[in-house]
Structure formats: C-alpha cells, structure tokens
Amino acid sequence: MPPARAAMLRASTWVLLISLALCALRIPLAEVPDLLDPPGRLLPLWPQSLLWLGMGLIALLGARRGYLSLQRASGARRVFTAGRRQPDVEADPRSPTLALALFVVALLSAVILPPLLVGGWTMQPVELWLGLYGTYGTSVAFATAAWVIFHTGYAILFALILALVQSMGESLIRRAWTRRVPLGGIALGLLLGIPDLFVGGWADLLTTLVSCTLLGVVHLLVGGRLRWSAAASWFLMMFL
C-alpha cells in the first residue's frame, strides 16, 4: 500500500473510532430513553437544555477536528472528493437532479414506512415540538434552540461517519463496484437502526436502513462533497 494511502487510512480509522465513541454517548440508556431525546421529561428546562447544547457542541467540535486531521493526512482541502466525478448542473444536470430526487425519496421513506409497517401516522418534527411544548410550556424556545444545536452536531457527525466508511471501504476493497455501492449509507443505517430495533422494533430498523442507504447514494451522486451530504443528513435525521 502506498505510504500516502496508508497514512490516510490510519487517520480515517482514528477519526472513525472517535466519531463512533461520540455516537455512543447518545444511545438511550435503559429505562431513561428521554435523557438526550425529546421531549426530555427527565430534567428541568435548563439542565436539559445545557445537556443538549453541550452534546451538540462536542459533536460539532469532534467532527470539525476529525475533518481537519483528515485534511492534513490527505493533503487535500476536500477530503472525500478525490478521484470522483464532480456534479456540474450546467453541463450535466442528471446527477444533481437524481441526487435531489433520491433525497426526497429518503425523506418520504422516513415518513411513510413506519405507518405502512406498524400503522398510525406521525410527523416527527411536529411530534418533537409538541413534546417539547408539553414538557416546557412557554419556555419551549430555549429547549428547541438547544435541541437544534444537538441535532446539528450529530447530523454532521453522522455525515462524516458515512463518508469515512465509504472512503475506507473503497480504499480497502479496491474494486470498481465499491464506488457505486453506498457502503457508508448501509453502515450508517445499521449503526443508527440497531439501537432503534430495541426501542421501536423492526419497523424502525428497516426505516432507518432504507433512508440512510438512500443518503449514501446521494453522497455518491454529489461527488463525495461532505457539505452537501451533511445538509441532507440534517434534514433526514429530523424525520428519523
């Protein structure tokens, strides 16, 4: 293995391990699933808001520092775009258009699959806000702002994990098909879906796996640009 690729693989491994450790912090504890997830019934307003704020900032800082480490190891400003065809809306709008369409399908999957599989109909962002309002009343704005920071930090971290697994899979397997298969999306779907299996059952696992796999395809179609993948992750995770 060339020294440059080996150095990048080592850096990617360390960043991935740190990212997974940060993800483990948000796994619901036994009997206390609302400590980090809305509506936050376990703590009063300010402790809960500070917890969300602190966790979000830690995730943001971890993702930022990890990406800077990858930039130093790769010597490139855009770490995950090397060797990938970049979308050009003017010259060939097919890839960006398909990426947008699949992103919409991923959102619809997150909304439609649960009621199709288990019955009932909920809209996650609405349920989120109603839960926060029911818990904190007129002070809901503070809790909502803190939760948005928490959500943003982890959405970016999830996008980084997706991109890392995709890049490492391509580097280790070295087959042409790995650039067309959303390895990162599948891995992220399993990472987030397996804890959901114990909380919400197979329907939640399947919904998360399908939606994250589509997010992985979007990541490939946008040329591995983490900024676009992170934006898509932010919206998608709002519905999962």
Task: Please outline what is shown here.
The protein is mainly alpha-helical and 240 residues long.
Task: Provide structural commentary.
- The protein has about 240 residues and is mostly helical.
- It has one domain (about 5-85, about 95-240).
- The chain has eight helices and no strands.
- Helix 1 runs antiparallel to helix 2 and helix 3 runs antiparallel to helix 7 (about 200-220).
- The termini are far apart.
- It comes from Kocuria palustris PEL.
- Keywords: Membrane, Transmembrane, Transmembrane helix.
- This is CPBP family intramembrane metalloprotease.
Can you give keywords for this protein?
transmembrane; membrane; about 240 residues; mainly alpha; transmembrane helix; single chain
**Alpha-carbon distance between the two ends:** 39 Å
Give the ordered list of helices and strands.
HHHHHHHH
Number of strands: 0
| Tally of separate helices | 8
* Helix-strand makeup class: mainly alpha
Strand content: under 5%
Q: What ranges have pLDDT less than 50 throughout 5 or more consecutive residues?
A: none
Instruction: Tell me the count of domains.
Output: 1
Organism: Kocuria palustris PEL
Protein name: CPBP family intramembrane metalloprotease
Keywords: Membrane, Transmembrane, Transmembrane helix
